[in-house]
Amino acid sequence: MSKVTRYYATKSVRMCVVCRQRDLQKNLIRFKVLESALQLYDGSGRSFYVCYMCLPQRKTQQIIKRIVKKAENLQEQIEEIAQICQK
């Protein structure tokens, strides 16, 4: 995962699943779940958005657990994705 491809429209507004704030799609991180693992969105499948402000919060992990259902090492996955997105 060296290069992060961002999929977004220029003026689309989406909502963070944690804080429910609406923002431009380019200002949110888009995730998807594949085989019980949290991943950055790669262009296919269902996805959800989390804003950069909510990413380090404890509440984020609880909400993503509801979406992922059978998550293992969820906190580690969130931290890894946060590091990739900050580059």
Automatic annotation (TrEMBL):
* Swiss-Prot/TrEMBL keywords: Coiled coil
- Name the coiled-coil region(s): 57-84
Residues annotated as domain YlxR: 14-80
Q: Which SUPFAM superfamilies match?
A: YlxR-like (SSF64376)
What domain of life? Bacteria
Q: What is this protein called?
A: YlxR domain-containing protein
Instruction: List the lineage, top down.
Output: Bacteria, Pseudomonadati, Campylobacterota, Epsilonproteobacteria, Campylobacterales
